[in-house]
Amino acid sequence: MKITNIFSRRSSWSLPYVVFLLLFVALPLILIMVYAFFDEGGNFTLSNLARFFSDSDALSTFAVSIEIAIENTAICLLLGYPVAWILANKRYNRSAVTIIIFILPMWINALMRTLATADLFNMLGIPLGKGTLLFGMVYDYLPFMIYPIYNVLRRMDPSYAEAAQDLGAKPSSVFMNVTLPLSLPGITSGIMMVFMPTVSTFAISEFLTNNKIKLFGTIIQENINSSMWNYGAALSFIMLIIIGITTLLGGNDEEDAQVQGGLI
Amino acid sequence: MSEDNTIISIEHISKRFGDKRVLDDISLNIKKGEFVTILGPSGCGKTTTLRIIAGFETPDEGNLYIGGNLMNNVQPHKRPVNTVFQRYALFPHLNVYDNIAFGLKLQGVAKDEIETRVMRVLKMVGMTDYEWRNVDSLSGGQQQRVAIARAIVNRPSVLLLDEPLSALDHKMRKDMQIELKQMHRTLGITFVYVTHDQEEALTLSDTVVVMNHGVIQQIGSPTDIYNEPVNCFVADFIGESNIFNATMIEDRKVSFMGHEFECVDEGFGENVPVDVVVRPEDIYIMPRTDKGQFDGVVSSCIFKGVHYEMIVNTPDGYELMIQDYNPFEAGMEVSMIIKPNDIQVMRKERICNTIEGEMIDATHIDMLGGEFECLPQEGLKAGDKVRVEVDFDKVDLTDDKRDGTCEGDIKFILYKADHYQLSVRAENRDYVYVDTQDVWEDRDIVGINIRPEDMRITKIEEAGA
């Protein structure tokens, strides 16, 4: 009787997922903290964190990562917003299917796409470097920028734009004063979807620059691969804090933004 | 109407959305300072008319003039009109003050003047002290006031209002009506107001424009529209009414309900079928006497606050609605009188259905979106265009749409004292009018059948053939 009761309660159905979360999300996070704040002998220490701030290699890699992430996000926004606007505008796009074409690359594994892009550059004889790295990143992350902005624009009540026109706004000021501010939740959502993963990426830089440019994700990977668990964990911890700050900068609207952005 | 007194002039405007004709040759002149209401059921084209004036739609045919200038291709932001939107469309990212100042900032009005003008309109709409509030935190009625303030602060020469009160509750609506009327007087600008609420239209307007199916049915003052409706639609849509099929026997003599009545209308001709409308408060009711024009029995009596509303049945099977200050209880035998002045005679729009179709073979016609059987037609071949006439009472409707030759959608029901007249839209969007004793419901989907012997078929001669 008791066993059937447990299984018939709806909340019990989430049990497998809770176990999964504990094992593969909560536990690893705790382990990162443990490794980051203890030395190899098992004593509490802040030296792992301190080492990062005196490690000029790691610091410059960190700066490069942030710079590339900002550049990538900016390019994605500049390219993605007009595309989203055109797709959401019924005058230019009558079919909801067109958006699929822009989302389609997301369905193919990012590693495969990146490898293919690298081969393409090699074939064309274009030297790998920062340019190719940014190209690969924009190619990978552009859909994550387009989709949330598209969603917000598509759901925007057209009477806002009409009201602005009615009050004397010419098309450009309708956009600057109404459409753009009202699409901010989509932009915020898009920036987070692009910026956060770019900070931690390492595969793209490995394939598209032949490791000429190292990103923050790369040095974490290198440290872990060479069994520097404690320092690697400390670097991971720093990255988590960066991601946390980005999320906070997204503001209180973040939840709203993601719901409106339709991604989560 | 003198030229310089006209501010908006709509000349023969038509508009289609896809294959749907939403406006059919609309012409309308609006005078400076007038309060004009465009009234009609949903889908009649009233909002489209307003959007054409505002510039959000362009007419397919015809011209729009505002202040004497052709406006067909002028963009909305260059027109001297401002709109109060149905769902207000207040900018959610701006507070009350910035919403109202939006238009003035675009015009580059000086900062202190903006402030003076915003404060002045806020006071006018009774929203002083709300200027820093977030628009989402306002109630529906308050948002409405801000929307009006945002429009009038720009001092437009015409204010367009698209069902502005439809989202408010009854009490609020009454209060806003009075305030709108007040504002119209104070501002002295032209108001063009769209609504489906006939009471609102009669209360507020100088002129009412009644629309249906994309066509203007009648333009007139509220009293004209109420007392002298030009057709059954207007009579039925505005206020309560008793509508009868009648025959104009000669000038000033009309017959309906099996009785002859004196009336004041002339010029219809002799023995011409017409419609007659009599308002419920215009029928005099008294206990049974031989001085009445006709007799009946009260079947129900309801108190309506000021008057009583009674349903009276006559021995010939007609049902009348009568309003009187005195109650006559159900079951009472009564007599009635209708005075000549209170009988409004209207020309019939049609006396039978006229349907256009095409011969499929000698015994079948393609019309209304279905394949109808007809009697064998001599001298007509497949592909010939034909006109089919069918009397209103010869169209059969079926409950199950599959039992009909084609499908129909009941769009409008008119009670005519002893029967209903239904406007049924067939599959090909043509209308069929049906007289029936049966009770059908608005928006019912039905089957349409016509017996072959009830069709009168004539060939349409092709032009130039």
Most extensive interface, residues per chain?
A-B, 18 and 23 residues
Distance between the termini of chain B: 45 Å
Tell me the name of the CATH homologous superfamily of the largest domain in chain B: P-loop containing nucleotide triphosphate hydrolases
CATH topology of the largest domain in chain B, anyone?
Answer: Rossmann fold
Q: Note the overall shape of chain B.
A: globular
The class by helix and strand makeup of chain A works out as mainly alpha
Q: Give me the CATH fold name of chain A.
A: MetI-like fold
CATH architectural label of the largest domain in chain B: 3-Layer(aba) Sandwich
Total tally of structural domains of chain A: 1
Largest beta sheet of chain B: what is the strand line-up?
A: 6-7-8-3-9-10
Mean pLDDT score of chain B: 91
Taking the alpha carbons of the first and last residues of chain A, their distance comes to 38 Å
Unreliable stretches of chain A (pLDDT < 50, length at least 5) are: 257-264
Tell me the major beta sheet of chain B: 6 strands, mixed
Class of secondary structure makeup of chain B = alpha+beta
Radius of gyration of chain A: 23 Å
Mind telling me the CATH class of chain A? Mainly Alpha
Oligomer: heterodimer
Q: Shape of chain A from CA axes?
A: globular
What do these coordinates show?
The complex is a heterodimer of chains A (264) and B (465). Chain A has one domain (48-261): MetI-like fold, CATH 1.10.3720.10. Chain A has 14 helices and no strands. The radius of gyration of chain A is 23 Å and the shape is globular. Chain A is mainly α and 264 residues long. The longest helix of chain B has 18 residues, at 170-187. With 465 residues, chain B is an alpha+beta fold. Chain B contains eight helices and 30 strands. A six-stranded mixed beta sheet of chain B has the order 6-7-8-3-9-10, sandwiched between helices. Chain B has a five-stranded antiparallel beta sheet with strand order 13-12-11-14-20. In chain B, strands 15-19-16-17-18 form a five-stranded antiparallel beta sheet, with no helix packed on it. Chain B folds into three domains: 3-227, P-loop containing nucleotide triphosphate hydrolases (Rossmann fold, 3-Layer(aba) Sandwich), CATH 3.40.50; 240-347, Beta Barrel (OB fold (Dihydrolipoamide Acetyltransferase, E2P)); 353-459, Beta Barrel (OB fold (Dihydrolipoamide Acetyltransferase, E2P)).
